[in-house]
Q: What sequence folds into this?
């Protein structure tokens, strides 16, 4: 699955605060939204951390699937 990104610019800071608090963590089409303020200097670090988290999740998922297959064949 591809990872999508969107950037939204709000005229009113209160609307931006509301969007972050109400939309962060919401699940859409089986995926969770991550909503945060954009900080250019933090973007690269956040992308590395996200990639690491996604790899850890993939590793765990693969182990669970393999374990389930082995349990069913014994």
A:
């Amino acid at each position: 699955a591809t990872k999508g990104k969107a950037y939204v610019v709000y005229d009113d800071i209160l609307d931006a605060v509301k969007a972050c608090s109400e939309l962060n963590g919401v699940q859409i089409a089986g995926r969770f939204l991550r909503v945060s303020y954009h900080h250019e200097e933090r973007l690269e670090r956040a992308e590395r951390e996200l990639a690491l988290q996604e790899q850890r999740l993939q590793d765990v998922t693969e182990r669970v699937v393999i374990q389930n297959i082995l349990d069913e064949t014994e």
In short: The chain has two helices and two strands. The chain has two domains: 1-38, 39-74. The beta strands are 27-28, 31-32. Residues 29 and 68 are 25 Å apart (CA to CA).
